[in-house]
Write a structure and sequence with these properties.
By secondary structure, the protein is of the alpha/beta class. The chain contains nine helices and ten strands. It has helices at residues 41-48, 71-79, 96-101, 110-114, 120-132, 148-161, 178-195, 206-212, 235-242; strands spanning 2-10, 16-25, 30-34, 56-61, 64-65, 81-85, 166-170, 198-202, 215-220, 223-229. The chain is globular and about 50 Å long. The structure holds adenosine-5'-triphosphate (ATP). Adenosine-5'-triphosphate binds at residues 11, 13, 15, 17, 35, 37-43.
Length: 254
């Protein structure tokens, strides 16, 4: 369970990225965060992984304060949180398998990972992860030889190899075509349902948000303006979150 209590983020230039956000996300939820550009979606995701610190409030994961954690405790908490980015964040010249294995770095000494001395159990885990995202045959291919959708699947496999209990995905399909978008979203849904991994996903496309989320969080100007089951996220509600009618380019439309 992730408890976000009065979370506030003020950037050093004074911009309020998040303003007193309160919400609780249960293990196994599939949450999609929506809102206009600049609403605070990325700021919230980065706060949940402590890629940056909130300036006020607290985030508690399974009873432990992420906000107060440091050193070993913070490393252990972050180990449970996988991250997926729009631009995949792979090491392009490395093989797919090496990229997936990099999900294991937090479990071993730096020296061991630098030398690539992965235990067999880790290598097996990495192959299993590639199997789960449907590209077991790509293990020894260089990452930059894959299509965008395949590269995003590698990054999902990396989060699986990490044995993350929570996956944060920041616009994971923004660089993909409509067909590949669905394939990647299907992967995320399958992983959520089969493994019970909590998904928190920022999405630009409202129809995709509705199709895949079990729960929608709507942000507007750093404030939480909607938080509820997807069935309650009506057209009127989206118009309120966006403070205007939904535009065509906010629908994938296939
Ligand atoms: N490093 C930063 N320094 C100052 N202000 C920032 C920084 N990062 C984000 N902001 C501001 O914080 C607010 C929220 O930004 P954020 O990137 O979280 O929005 P978003 O909803 O993810 O937008 P988008 O959909 O365009 O990615 C915006 O006003 C943005 O300009």
């Amino acid at each position: 369970m992730i408890e976000i209590k009065e979370a506030t983020k003020v950037y050093s230039n004074g911009t309020v990225g998040l303003n007193k956000i309160n919400t609780t996300i249960k293990q196994g939820d599939f949450v999609v965060i929506v809102g206009r550009s600049g609403a605070g979606k990325s700021t919230l995701l980065r706060a949940i992984n402590r890629l940056h610190d909130i300036t006020d409030g607290e985030i508690v994961i399974n009873g432990k304060s992420l906000t107060k954690a440091n050193g070993k405790q913070l490393r252990e908490m972050r180990r449970d949180i996988g991250m997926i980015f729009q631009n995949f964040n792979l090491i392009k010249r490395n093989t797919v398998l090496k990229n997936v294995l990099s999900g294991r770095v937090a479990y071993h000494s730096t020296m061991r990972t630098l030398l690539g001395l992965w235990p067999k159990a880790d290598v097996d885990l990495a192959h299993d992860a590639l199997n789960r995202v449907g590209i077991p045959d790509k293990a020894y291919v260089r990452a930059d030889e894959l299509s965008g959708g395949q590269q995003q699947r590698v990054s999902i496999a990396r989060a699986l190899a990490q044995e993350a209990k929570i996956i944060l995905a920041d616009e994971p399909v923004a660089s993909l075509d409509p067909l590949t978008t669905r394939q990647v979203m299907d992967d995320l849904r399958r992983i959520n349902q089969e493994l019970g991994i909590t998904m928190i996903v920022n999405l630009h496309f409202i129809d995709i948000a509705r199709e895949y989320a079990t729960r929608i969080i709507g942000l507007r100007d750093g404030e939480l303006v909607f938080d509820g089951p997807v069935e309650d996220a009506t057209d009127e509600m989206f118009t309120q979150i966006y403070e205007r009618e939904i535009k065509k380019d906010e629908l994938l439309g296939v």
